[in-house]
Design goal:
12 helices; alpha+beta; single chain; eight-stranded mixed beta sheet
Length: 436
């Protein structure tokens, strides 16, 4: 959410930021709505002032036994009351119109964000690790999982429909181990506070992180008005809603391992096989509440925390700086981490770390009291995946697969696996990939 005063004072910068997002100028349009609102407020204030003055004059007229003047003034006051009542309704409508317009506008990119329309214009910042030389034709994760009998999409479809999966046995344990490893790393080494947050949130919470109103179709809603979280970012960021924090208590860092739920409304035909794009998945989320001055350094720190998970798992990845046209709605700057998947012979997104400025804070009314000067200011929020557990499972399966279809468990996960060192492959009579 933007400050309309800032838009009025900086119309060219605002429109330039929108243009980098591929949007038409809106500064003049929004300023015109605000001008109408302010003019209307002035008109109401004048009417209220006249009503107060006329009310006093009625008393004077009655004291002087000037009944005609008193009646005329009473009639004027009645008309003013009606005008003010109707005018207040119009004022609320003007305010609602302005808020609707502002709530549909994405955040503006920071100056260092590259220009571009889509993922083809993103910039590779670094590549870590070399894709493994397997020596055989790699399977995709769903081939490995289905052939071992530990990944069952048909059973999930009978229970829930498409874009769900049932994991069994050692593969289910491997996914659980990944989540536990990630949350332990973030809390014991990286200074994040573990939170077990609600999975159902109210409109106000989803609005606060800018998931509503624009992205309602991407969410699942219960019959009694709650929203299932698409990411724990909603719950974690809203921990500070309607609060005034102390600057000396910032930054605050939160993390959570939760189920997440997404309708994938716009993904028809994309990643229909496998676990890449599911309605239900687990994710470790990181959220930081801080000040504008600390935000960019915190963004680099958060990204390095997500990268460290991949490094310790031994998974090759690259870090991409997203262009303006590919960033999320609330973001001012975003790094995507993309893990190498041998079965797809491609890098795929596994984490997204974003700095949002005060965009979400304004929607949540989340502020802090400044230590060195009087007054309060809006906090800055950041969020990132640390990591998406299901996609990390895919990365482990494809990078650690063996010629017989088994999967070696990465060393850092062994303490979580109860003695299991590898996930079994398909039965011996099943087909195996051709050696090279």
């Amino acid at each position: 959410m933007f400050d309309i005063k800032w838009i009025r004072d900086n119309p060219e910068a605002f429109d330039k930021g929108l243009a980098s997002r591929g949007l038409d100028p809106m500064g003049a349009h929004l300023s015109a709505i605000e001008d109408r609102r302010r003019a209307h407020v002035t008109k109401l204030q004048e009417a209220q002032g006249r009503r107060n003055a006329a009310s006093k004059e009625i008393g004077k007229a009655k004291a002087q036994k000037d009944e005609d003047t008193a009646q005329a003034l009473m009639a004027e006051v009645a008309k003013l009351k009606t005008l003010i009542r109707d005018g207040e309704a119009e004022e609320r409508e003007l305010e609602a119109t302005l808020e609707r317009e502002l709530s549909g506008i994405p955040n503006l990119p920071l100056p260092e964000v590259p220009e571009g329309k889509d993922e083809h214009d993103n910039v590779c910042v670094r590549v870590v690790g070399d894709p493994p030389t397997l020596g055989f034709e790699p399977r995709q994760h769903f081939e490995l999982g289905e052939q071992s009998g530990l990944m069952d999409f048909e059973a999930a479809a009978r229970i829930s429909g498409s874009r769900f999966v049932v994991l069994r046995g050692a593969l289910a344990r491997l996914e659980r181990a990944l989540g536990q490893f990630m949350i332990d790393l973030h809390t014991t080494e990286f200074g994040y506070e573990e939170v077990n947050p609600p999975l159902l949130v109210r409109d106000q919470a989803a609005y606060g992180t800018a998931n509503l109103p624009k992205f309602a179709e991407d969410l699942f809603r219960t019959t009694d008005g709650f929203w299932l979280i698409p990411t724990a970012e909603i719950s974690l960021t809203n921990l500070v809603r309607e609060s005034i924090l102390r600057e000396e208590d910032l930054p605050q860092r939160f993390t959570a391992l939760t189920p997440c739920f997404r309708s994938e409304a716009g993904s028809a035909g994309r990643d229909v096989r496998g676990m890449i794009r599911q309605h239900q998945f687990s994710k470790v989320e990181m959220v930081t509440i801080t000040t504008a001055e600390l935000a960019l350094a915190e963004h680099e720190r958060m990204t390095s925390c997500a990268e460290e998970v991949l490094k310790r798992l031994g998974l090759p990845f690259r870090t991409m700086l997203l262009c303006a046209g590919d960033m999320g709605f609330a973001s001012r700057k975003t790094y995507d981490l993309e893990v190498w998947l041998p079965g797809q012979n491609a890098y795929r997104e596994i984490s997204s770390c974003s700095v949002c400025g005060d965009f979400q804070a304004r929607r949540m009314s989340a502020r802090y009291r400044m230590a060195e000067q009087k007054g309060v200011d809006y906090v800055t929020t950041l969020n990132g995946s640390g990591l998406a557990v299901g996609r990390t499972l895919i990365g482990v399966m494809e990078n650690y697969q063996q010629v017989d279809g088994s999967i070696v468990v990465p060393d850092v996960l062994l303490p979580y696996m109860g003695g299991i060192e590898s996930i079994p492959g398909p039965p011996s009579n099943a087909s195996s990939p051709t050696g090279v």
